[in-house]
Fold:
Amino acid sequence: MSALLVQHPEMALFLALAFGHLIGMIRVGPIQLGGVCGTLIVALILGQTGVRLDPDLKAVAFALFIFALGYTGGPQFFANVGKGWRYGLLSLVEVVAVLAVVMTATVLLSLNAGAAAGLLAGAATESAVIGTASEAVSRLALAPDQIEALQGQIATAYSITYLFGLITIVLFTSQLAPILLRVDLKAAAADLAGRLGETEGGGQAALPELVGRAFAAGEAAGASVADFEARHDHAVTVARLRRGEATIEPGPSEQIQSGDILLLVGRRAAVVEAASTLGPEVVRIGLDMPLVRRSYVLKQAQAAGRTVADLRRLAPLETRRGVFILGIQRLGHAVPVLPDATLQSGDVLELYGAERAVARAGQALGQATPPADKTDFIMLGLGVLAGILIGALGANLGGIHVTLGAGGGCLLSGLVFGWYASRHAGFGVFPAASAQILKDFGLAAFIAAVGFSAGPDAFRLIREYGVWLPLAGVLAALIPASLSLFIGHRLLKLETPFLLGAIAGQQCSTPAISALVSASGNSTPVVGYTVTYAISNVLLPLLGPVVVGLAFHLT
Structure:
């Protein structure tokens, strides 16, 4: 079997992907390793056989991953750099604190550049650091075998410290931090959701069911459609009228007459409230109409930075009438649809209502989400090429040659291309599903390649540092999180659910936000998470070459 894998390394790659993601699915309480760490563990084991992947494949896989990462995060990154400064400050705390802890451990434990970078990647649970740090190691003035050994130690140190960093941030955000703040997290999250408003239209939950029901006009007779809808804060819409044998799609100025039958569409609680002013409910003969759900990427500059409530209040009546926001997606996470939820450029809004009304509102907000079966490979090719060229640039600072490398260059290129695409409809179509495939496969293939080469040195590193390396991983996760908790609570006065979500985001930890949402009982922590996640997802990978350069000159 070993000889077969060495002869056909592509078999070893897919074996590592399959069994690695199988291991990554195992969950113990809120802790789950995930496919990347699982793939690395399997690759380290298979690496004992001597299997290797072509370095060119490793480079291409990482370039695609890091460009897709930057592209999908670009709109949110630039939207949050200035406006989300309070949350963004926590990402800076993360970068400074984790760098200080890692460099202190480097001196005390005499870590080499590879182990130091692996500690950073694992403790911060940021897999992209492995790629940027590996590139930085390849540029050191060392023999090829020394470079390969250091790159292997990045992967090994990451695999050792990742689990401890992950457990630390999950338990800290969902369990320990609320105790330190003396806060009932579930009660605080419920109170925050209540103060923000439970829905954009006044219903009973963050994402209530929208309904259509027909009633006789009753007391509404004599009022205009606009007046009737205004009485109910536009949480319901008179979608159709049945008058005798005629079916009418009324405008705002249409007068409701005695004997009319009204088809109301809106949030359940609002429709129930409106029913108390109407006649009896009737069978909707000749009134039923199709309602659609459509997703649009928010690009309207006037809407970005506004709350959901602002959007409803400021939008022209003909634009907002009969349209409801069902969901908000930001960086792949659902943001609660609350009146005070702030919208950002690049948010994906799911609109619900009659097709013409949804199309009208969607066109005013941005553009429909791109088709899921088409990728602009011209943009993708030029974007990665531009990133590689940017990464080749460098400068000497204090005797240290500083360069972003292909990884850092592709990350910046992806950020710019993603931001530009969010501002210009039709440019660089890169569906979310396509980007996710590139991120998942690119990173997993890169990690597998690194794990294969690191295999022979894995156990030596474990024997050399013993318990001290995992302990350093715990401290490198705990100290930045604790500092952010103090600064966010005492100085920035952030609401507890938002603050804890931001702490999970500053470490780019999806398991942490999942555990936090479960502990909170609602999705309010996601609001803070998406801001710091977008910023840390850029800053932490760029920190990889910095740690390599500093550790190399210290040891």
Observations:
- Residues 144-181 form the longest helix (38 residues).
- Confidence is low (pLDDT under 50) at residues 199-208.
- The radius of gyration is 27 Å.
